[in-house]
């Protein structure tokens, strides 16, 4: 069975919201009951949270020992995948 990607679902959702917004605008209804500042702050908060989670998830090595450990790990993974013996 084919799995639907997260990107496809998110693009479809954004398209649905845009179409709904357009329909409500055409019919004279207030499409989004939010001010521009509230929308800006909400998007800014979501981007900050996403960047924070991504930075937290990644392996961030700052010390010389950590950087050397990362290099050792990558070399170990390379040799165990059929690389240099």
From TrEMBL:
The keyword Transmembrane helix applies. It comes from the Bacteria. Keywords: Membrane, Transmembrane, Transmembrane helix. It holds the Pfam family Holin_SPP1. One of its GO terms (cellular component) is membrane. It is found in: Membrane. The keyword Membrane applies. InterPro entries: Holin (IPR006479). Its main location: membrane. The chain crosses the membrane at residues 12-27, 39-57. This is SPP1 family holin. It comes from Frisingicoccus caecimuris.
